[in-house]
Design a protein that fits this description.
Number of domains: 1
Keywords: Hydrolase, Metal-binding, Zinc
Pfam family, one: Lactamase_B
CATH superfamily: Ribonuclease Z/Hydroxyacylglutathione hydrolase-like
Protein name: MBL fold metallo-hydrolase
InterPro entries: MBL_Glyoxalase_II, Metallo-B-lactamas, RibonucZ/Hydroxyglut_hydro
Helix content: 10-25%
Cofactor: Zn(2+)
Strand order of the largest sheet: 1-2-3-4-5-6
CATH topology: Metallo-beta-lactamase, Chain A
Radius of gyration: 16 Å
Oligomer: single chain
CATH class: Alpha Beta
Shape: globular
Length: about 210
């Protein structure tokens, strides 16, 4: 299994392609630039199987409909954000100058933690709320990576001043879920560079002294 980071959309949100040797892939958080993303996948003959959303803020969902229609694939989001995709007040887009973002409802709801299997892909879903009520992280044990969305960044954590945000809850999510992963686990965040669990345990100023 391999992965590729693609900053997309108005806030250059990290979209991730997680693919296997058959060139099948999962798309995590396609934040925008749908035509660009589709063109890249077609040029490299990569076949998407599903779209996974770490959460439903506008900068993570902008290309959802373009990609879903192109390959007729399902979109997964946590049940707590079921209505966010189509509601610009919930997904936050109405508060930004980029304009209202609204996409069709999700096809699959993540209703709790556990194993998510799609084709040959197997991911462990962890509920990591705090940045938003339905934030989740996807852990691929075999690949040694976790897609953390906007929960944990290199040297930082997600903002909690948006609707549904809760700072104390986010800190607990990070400590109880993400920091319990193997220290060598690579953290693939919604914004910025990759990091590791070990690095954040040692040097993230928002997590020290908890």
């Amino acid at each position: 299994m391999k992965w590729r980071q693609l900053p997309l959309g108005p806030l250059q949100t990290n979209c991730y392609l997680f693919f296997n040797e058959k060139k099948e892939c999962l798309i995590i958080d396609p934040g925008g630039d749908g035509k660009k993303l589709i063109s890249l996948l077609e040029q490299q003959h990569i076949k998407p199987l599903a779209i996974l959303l770490t959460h439903a803020h506008f900068d993570h969902i902008g290309a959802v409909d373009d990609v879903r229609k192109q390959w007729n694939i399902p979109v997964y989001v946590h049940k707590n954000e079921k209505d966010w995709l189509s509601d610009s007040s919930l997904n936050g887009s109405q508060f930004f100058m980029a304009g209202a973002v609204s996409v069709a409802e999700p096809d699959k709801l993540i209703k709790g933690e556990g194993k998510l299997e799609i084709g040959e892909f197997s991911l462990q879903v962890y509920e990591t709320p705090g940045h938003s009520p339905g934030s989740v992280s996807f852990y691929a044990q075999e690949a040694g990576i976790v897609f953390s969305g906007d929960a944990l960044f290199a040297g930082s954590i997600g903002r909690t001043d948006l609707p549904g945000g809760n700072h104390e809850q986010l800190i607990k999510s990070i400590h109880n879920k993400l920091l319990n992963l193997p220290e060598e686990t690579i953290v693939l965040s919604g914004h910025g560079p990759e990091t590791s669990i070990e690095q954040e345990m040692e040097s993230n100023p928002f997590l020290n002294g908890f």
